[in-house]
Amino acid sequence: MIKYFPIFGALVVISLASVAILQAELNQFTQLELGTEVRTWGRTVGGKKEYLKACADNDNSNKCIHWSDEKGNVISSTSRSRVFNNGSLIIYSFQKADVGGYFSPDERERVVENSDGTKWAVAGPEISVVLKE
Ligand SMILES: *[C@@H]1O[C@H](CO)[C@@H](O)[C@H](O)[C@H]1NC(C)=O
């Protein structure tokens, strides 16, 4: 399927996702935003998808403090990240292991149908987080 993505106002067939790039610094506080409705963040690191959910401030269950797989099994057991109910993802001390593509399952691909019946899809946004050299 061919996908069309509006980039800077023009309609261009270019890639499978609209990707923003963020340069994070080692050991630094890093805040990511994809919209205030986001309650679950996902990331692809080392070819694996991991998820982290927004919870009440006093809720320290695994899914709120550790990146976990779709079934809730902990993958990266570090408490360096937290998702807030305003949609922000905060990584308190950015590490090499955090380099990856960040997205939200709450903000996935949107399929738009035109009045003539044709459809086009806008991929969900993704933030590619790289390490600042
Ligand atoms: C969301 O809430 C957290 C925790 O209170 C805060 O650190 C962060 O700056 C907030 N994000 C925005 C976009 O205001």
From TrEMBL:
How far does the signal peptide extend, from start to end residue? 1-24
Keyword annotations for this protein, in alphabetical order, are: Signal
Full protein name? Uncharacterized protein
